[in-house]
């Protein structure tokens, strides 16, 4: 397999505030992709916009990874809605 | 004084508990019950946890009478367990840690065993409970594979043995009750043997039984007999604390927190394999 076959998807997700974007970024960046999943996932944060880039050789791999990510994103946002907003401007633990 | 909230979801039980200096303020649980003869699969179990976790968190907070700001530390099961359900629960634990600006600790869950597919025993309330009820009525012992290697026990041979022979055994005059009885006697003998060896190795005189199977009266009886013979003390408890629950995670986390343990944020992931001896017990001084 060469790099030529690589496909990628980029998601751009805007949030109400940059603090919420940061919370979501911190919650979701922790989980690494499974080693044999064949997917590379890179999260980055600019202001209130979270960008996630997925790349893989097979569309199936991309679909699985994006799906899983979106499920966790939904859960995070629902948690923010029910138990937020964030009480502090930044996280003060390690 | 430490107030800790614990999130547990390594298997089919989802539990959220809050403790304050060892006192239990709330201990809420939802169990994903599968049809008879079926085990719980990662995907469906994760879905169950996903659908229940936020409501359960609300319930646990309300029951405790505390507000989020009263909590000192957020604890969650880091492993071992099924990946997808663990990950779901960890997402919520991380999110509230961020929202409420509280430290986060990953706790090792330890040991889960399940059985009871072959006989299509009801999973409600749990397969183990139903096996115990059936076993009480059995008395014809069938010799099953007994597999102890040092401190390790293996149950896989038993499952295969039963799967291959269940139908012919039922025809040969063994009842489902007898098979449950034989299963319990064999498996528990293995556990008692290794426990006794562990006591000797560690020079300890205390045994604590936990986990869903720990509710089993026959296991407690056999373990109690062994302990009595060597002058050891047995500690057992009932289903509120035996079965997977949030309180055990909260309490362990509280001890870790008091000992000054810290979890760097990037390590707040989950791991399906997480051995008990990988944990540094910094909260103990003996």
From TrEMBL, chain A:
UniProt subcellular location: Cytoplasm; Nucleus
Keywords: Cytoplasm, Nucleus, tRNA processing
One GO cellular component term: EKC/KEOPS complex
Superkingdom field: Eukaryota
Biological process terms in GO annotation: tRNA processing; tRNA threonylcarbamoyladenosine metabolic process
Family label: Belongs to the CTAG/PCC1 family.
Protein task: Component of the EKC/KEOPS complex that is required for the formation of a threonylcarbamoyl group on adenosine at position 37 (t(6)A37) in tRNAs that read codons beginning with adenine. The complex is probably involved in the transfer of the threonylcarbamoyl moiety of threonylcarbamoyl-AMP (TC-AMP) to the N6 group of A37. LAGE3 functions as a dimerization module for the complex.
Protein name as annotated: L antigen family member 3
Species the sequence originates in: Aromia moschata
Automatic annotation (TrEMBL), chain B:
MF annotations from Gene Ontology: metal ion binding; tRNA N(6)-L-threonylcarbamoyladenine synthase activity
Cellular localization per UniProt: Cytoplasm; Nucleus
SUPFAM superfamilies registered for this protein in UniProt: Actin-like ATPase domain
Entry keyword Metal-binding: yes
E.C. code: 2.3.1.234
Parts of the chain that traverse the membrane: none
Keyword terms, alphabetized: Acyltransferase, Cytoplasm, Metal-binding, Transferase, tRNA processing
Class of enzymatic activity (EC top level): transferase
Top-rank taxon: Eukaryota
Major localization listed first in the record, in broad terms: cytoplasm
Catalytic activity: L-threonylcarbamoyladenylate + adenosine(37) in tRNA = N(6)-L-threonylcarbamoyladenosine(37) in tRNA + AMP + H(+)
GO cellular component: cytoplasm; EKC/KEOPS complex; nucleus
Swiss-Prot/TrEMBL GO biological process terms: tRNA modification; tRNA threonylcarbamoyladenosine metabolic process
Ranges for domain Gcp-like: 114-250
Pfam families: TsaD (PF00814)
Name used for this protein in its record: N(6)-L-threonylcarbamoyladenine synthase
Organism encoding this protein: Aromia moschata
């Amino acid at each position: 397999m060469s790099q030529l076959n690589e496909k990628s998807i980029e998601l751009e997700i805007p949030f109400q505030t940059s603090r919420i974007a940061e919370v979501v970024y911190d919650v979701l960046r922790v989980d690494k992709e499974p080693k044999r999943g064949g997917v590379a996932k890179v999260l980055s944060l600019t202001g209130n916009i979270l960008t996630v880039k997925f790349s893989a050789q097979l569309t199936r791999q991309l679909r699985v990874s994006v799906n899983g990510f979106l499920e966790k994103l939904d859960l995070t946002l629902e948690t923010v809605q029910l138990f937020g907003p964030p009480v502090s401007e930044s996280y003060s633990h390690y | 004084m430490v107030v800790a909230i614990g999130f547990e979801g390594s298997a089919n039980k989802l539990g959220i508990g809050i403790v304050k200096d060892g006192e239990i303020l709330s201990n809420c649980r939802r169990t994903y019950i599968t049809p008879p003869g079926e085990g719980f699969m990662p995907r469906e179990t994760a879905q169950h946890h996903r659908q229940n976790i936020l409501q359960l968190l609300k319930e646990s907070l309300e029951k405790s009478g505390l507000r989020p700001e009263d909590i000192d530390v957020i604890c969650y099961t880091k492993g071992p367990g099924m990946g997808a359900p663990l990950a779901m629960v960890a997402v919520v634990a991380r999110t509230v840690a961020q929202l409420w600006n509280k430290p986060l600790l990953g706790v090792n869950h330890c040991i889960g065993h399940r059985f009871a597919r072959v006989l299509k025993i009801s999973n409600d309330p749990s397969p183990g409970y139903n096996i115990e009820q059936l076993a009480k009525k059995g008395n014809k012992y069938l010799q099953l594979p007994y597999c102890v290697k040092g401190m390790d026990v293996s149950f896989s041979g038993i499952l295969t043995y039963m799967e291959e022979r269940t139908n012919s055994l039922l025809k040969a005059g063994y009842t489902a009750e007898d098979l449950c009885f034989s299963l319990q006697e064999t498996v528990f003998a293995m556990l008692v043997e290794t426990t006794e060896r562990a006591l000797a190795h560690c020079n300890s005189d205390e045994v604590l039984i936990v986990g869903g199977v720990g509710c089993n009266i026959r296991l407690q009886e056999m373990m109690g007999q062994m302990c009595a013979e060597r002058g050891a003390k047995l500690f057992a408890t009932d289903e509120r604390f035996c079965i997977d629950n949030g309180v055990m995670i909260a309490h362990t986390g509280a001890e870790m927190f008091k000992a000054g343990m810290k979890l760097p944020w990037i390590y707040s992931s989950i791991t399906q394999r997480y051995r008990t001896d990988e944990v540094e017990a910094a909260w103990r001084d003996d």
